[in-house]
Amino acid sequence: MELTQALQQIQPSYIREILSDAQAPGVISLAGGLPDGNTFPISLMEQSLTSLPERPALFQYGHTAGFAPLLDYFRKQYQLLDHHQALVCTGSQQGLDLIARAFVNPDDKVVMEAPSYLGALQVFGLAQANVISVSQQVDGPNLEELEACFAHQAPKLFYAVPDFHNPTGVSWSLAVRQKVAQLCLQYDVTLVEDVPYRELRFKGEMLPLVSSFCPDQALVLRSYSKIAAPGMRMGVVTGKEEWIAPLIKVKQCADLHSSVPMQAVLLDLLQHPNFDQHIVTLRSIYQERYQCLAEQLRIKLPQGCKFNEVDGGMFIWVTLPECDNFALAKAALKNKVAVVPSTVFYQQGEKITPALRLNFTNATVEELAEAVDRLVTVIKSECGVM
Amino acid sequence: MELTQALQQIQPSYIREILSDAQAPGVISLAGGLPDGNTFPISLMEQSLTSLPERPALFQYGHTAGFAPLLDYFRKQYQLLDHHQALVCTGSQQGLDLIARAFVNPDDKVVMEAPSYLGALQVFGLAQANVISVSQQVDGPNLEELEACFAHQAPKLFYAVPDFHNPTGVSWSLAVRQKVAQLCLQYDVTLVEDVPYRELRFKGEMLPLVSSFCPDQALVLRSYSKIAAPGMRMGVVTGKEEWIAPLIKVKQCADLHSSVPMQAVLLDLLQHPNFDQHIVTLRSIYQERYQCLAEQLRIKLPQGCKFNEVDGGMFIWVTLPECDNFALAKAALKNKVAVVPSTVFYQQGEKITPALRLNFTNATVEELAEAVDRLVTVIKSECGVM
């Protein structure tokens, strides 16, 4: 049976495909975007989980938009405007997919920073969007490029990860946030603001959402995979009602609604008096690991390799001298350290910066130090640098 | 922001929209396809649910295809051929959506029986398929029509609900099953066999799956919403590997994977020594309700109204004299009984048989008797019959 034209264009996710190799005995994985399983707030969810059998109503069909008490919580917690609404998703990945299916016709123009989140490249690829890249700088997208793109190409959406970008870790400055919001309003481009790493800031102050400067021009995707637990598949998309309503229609087709027991457990967790402390602890654990990885890289990276400091999130982006970074990642896996080559974060035909994405949240400090040793050995031999 | 052309064609689900009205105090709902919440096997899931906090690994990211021990169980339980595979879905609704997204280009031909499952009409509508209807008889699709359609129109898929069809309750005979499989093989049409009600047979013997006669020409969708609990959103699609692999690629985009804790609880339930007894009990409860509803209808339905006996499932299909069945359903809701008018089960422009779908699984025998009184009053006044 022939595949759809849309699907024929999609490559399977390199990251998900190597996850099994990356889990082989002895391999230290800096490849996935996995939170540390030991940090999951299981103890804060324990009472909720064990009381599920006493709440049989949670096991019946639910409303497509989500479990009503959870929607109420989101409305208050995120201070939604009266004409805005929340839609619970099976992970924020689903929220992004629903947005593409509701609003992106084949050849519609969607803007992203390059390099880009792989899951978004896949979603917009499957929607057969015309994805336009703008380059990324240390404090966000290149604004001149972005304005020229908005002005001359009239894109429909701008997909952005302003807090600790995946894969680069870049966090947008306040000035960039304000300017991007203004450009979205001026050129009538809808901002899709994806903030899965927002709460994982371990340095500096949390900055306003870009969408806070253009609430009616934006859809916001939040994830509970990093601060609660990814296995539960919980996310939410918020925005004005007239844009959420079509997403609900698509979600009816997609899965009717998300798991109600999982929604109830998420709500109990978010309302737990110790949840804020859990986030504080999580940040501190990840900060320690980041500092270890950064320090090791500073000491050991050979000439021609560079990385920028990050203030949070899960990733360090190491740029390399000219080399086949895909071959490098494979050689690294043979040397028992898994990393992701930059190639996968670009569209076909784009100019690729040779680089590696290193995750620092799912390995201990001892493992991170050992991983850098193994990686540096491979970089030196593959890139011919000292 | 303009909707996609695909979405502009989709009507929201009447059934899901009236669910809130149907839940108003005093209304007896025969409208939804809801199992009875009191039958949920909560006690059989209790140990599994309460032990979730001891299994933190379930809360990490999982594989897109599903939780490995659950996939192993499906392979054995459903006796999958060596070159076949299972993919866990967020409800079988998602399985259907993934099939459409992987294999149905705009204008590709998909065959369904008319009337049709609304969720499938929505999915194939969103895929912009060219949906071709064949009429349904008491023992399955009209085979002459079906063969003519296969021969002259070369459709890609035939979507079928052979066990206790939604909305009509029709169950295909063995001869029809064998013939349809043969036609699918002969004309190279892929059978999508959707069997959510298969285990809810309370009369006669379970017949072989249609796909058992053409395993390499079929994809099978199973649901755990009727025999476990719908709130968990658990389903599975099985078929040959080369057709499951593309579904996995689409599922990566759609939601990465389904909730792992829910998959683990489902596996524990399916393996529980008392699970088979749960199904026996469920069948007996639903049989009693069916017999009550059927008896009431036999006694009270006015002239010109008819229904066929069913051997299982969740629905009775009552055909009516010529009338505005949409107006009738609305009048019934005012008279505090919720039913679904046949209109919603047909594509736009199709010849509609005036009828109502009555669910018998989510009301007590007392409520069913009262519901028929209320409904008959409305039928008499709206259709002008005695």
From TrEMBL, chains A, B:
<dbReference type="InterPro" id="IPR050859">
    <property type="entry name" value="Class-I_PLP-dep_aminotransf"/>
</dbReference>
<dbReference type="InterPro" id="IPR004839">
    <property type="entry name" value="Aminotransferase_I/II_large"/>
</dbReference>
<dbReference type="GO" id="GO:0008483">
    <property type="term" value="F:transaminase activity"/>
</dbReference>
<dbReference type="Pfam" id="PF00155">
    <property type="entry name" value="Aminotran_1_2"/>
</dbReference>
<keyword id="KW-0808">Transferase</keyword>
<dbReference type="GO" id="GO:0030170">
    <property type="term" value="F:pyridoxal phosphate binding"/>
</dbReference>
<dbReference type="InterPro" id="IPR015422">
    <property type="entry name" value="PyrdxlP-dep_Trfase_small"/>
</dbReference>
<protein>
    <submittedName>
        <fullName>PLP-dependent aminotransferase family protein</fullName>
    </submittedName>
</protein>
<dbReference type="InterPro" id="IPR015421">
    <property type="entry name" value="PyrdxlP-dep_Trfase_major"/>
</dbReference>
<dbReference type="GO" id="GO:1901605">
    <property type="term" value="P:alpha-amino acid metabolic process"/>
</dbReference>
<keyword id="KW-0663">Pyridoxal phosphate</keyword>
<keyword id="KW-0032">Aminotransferase</keyword>
<feature type="domain" description="Aminotransferase class I/classII large">
    <location>
        <begin position="61"/>
        <end position="375"/>
    </location>
</feature>
<dbReference type="InterPro" id="IPR015424">
    <property type="entry name" value="PyrdxlP-dep_Trfase"/>
</dbReference>
